[in-house]
Amino acid sequence: MEKVTIATVAERAGVSRQTVSNVINTPEVVRAETRERVREAITSLGYRVNQAARQMRTGRSRLIAVRIEPGSDGINGSVLDRFLHGLTDAATLAGYRVMLYTAADDDHEIATYDDLLTAHDLDGFVLTSTHHGDPRTSWLAARDVPFVTFGRPWGAPDTHSWVDVDNAAGTAAATRHLIEAGHRRIGFLGWPAGSGVGDSRRTGWESTMTDAGLTLSAVAAVDGVDAGADAAARFDSAITAVVCASDSLALGALRARPDCAVIGFDDTAVAAAIGLTSVSQPLTEAAARCMDMLTELLDGRAPATPTQLLLPPSLVVRPPRRR
């Protein structure tokens, strides 16, 4: 098989060799459309960067780390799995490898950082599942360890670069869709107060209902199908539609209130299989942008002010399957 080179990639993508090099090493200087075309060519041709040569030139390991989230109900866990897949693809295109680790809680994760930094020549971290009072970012920042987060620093100063999805915009779109379909009693099934993501998803529903002059009715449950069913059963009988903070809760709502129109969040494979309308997060784009921000930090090209990027989700409307 003929060796794939930068010239091969450039010919396939219809660009110069310098442009291919820029996409690999300094992607932010290349237009998004061109960058995507080059990345597709790299993937389809199976081009591999010479890592040994690059490590000798830069003095870096080209290794980053990210946590694997603990399994839950087998539905919502797939969301971060898709993010990890996208991050691994983006890291490979940028010439990095991804190390995965597990941690039960924040303290365990911080202890794991210490172990990983001692045992491995890590270049940086991508953090997920940010939350109020998150101690992980300050621990890394205090030690000058490069990192970015998928998730904003809820309630804390924007002292680091992050990518997040506009959760409120997602539930607002879901609520508008139901209003346009003629529903006026639309409930919200969410998580207990205090979750940054959960509170943001409730805000999108609440503000849209308030703007339309409609009555608010919300219940909360720990994430899960059974918990969602128990909570949805507490809705007033006048409720005709429900916006949910997750697909797991939506499945529970469908079980308890089969008479209602239900919209989930995260657009999991289960939602697609049963014909559930759901809000989809741009996880592949989020992962690629996290990787772009991290490489800017590692290459010393990051702007003086940390970058904060809020990506819009999209509503995937599906006609419900007949029972």
UniProtKB/TrEMBL annotation:
- What PROSITE patterns does the record tag this protein with? HTH_LACI_2
| Pfam families with a match to the protein in the record | LacI (PF00356), Peripla_BP_3 (PF13377)
Q: Which SUPFAM superfamilies match?
A: lambda repressor-like DNA-binding domains, Periplasmic binding protein-like I
Origin superkingdom? Bacteria
Show the CDD domains listed in the entry.
HTH_LacI
Keywords attached to this Swiss-Prot or TrEMBL record, sorted alphabetically, are: DNA-binding, Transcription, Transcription regulation
Which ranges carry the HTH lacI-type domain? Answer: 4-58
Against InterPro entries, the record matches this protein to: HTH_LacI (IPR000843), LacI/GalR-like_sensor (IPR046335), Lambda_DNA-bd_dom_sf (IPR010982), Peripla_BP_I (IPR028082)
What sections of the protein cross the membrane? none
| Official protein name in the record | LacI family transcriptional regulator
User: What organism is recorded for this protein?
Assistant: Paractinoplanes durhamensis
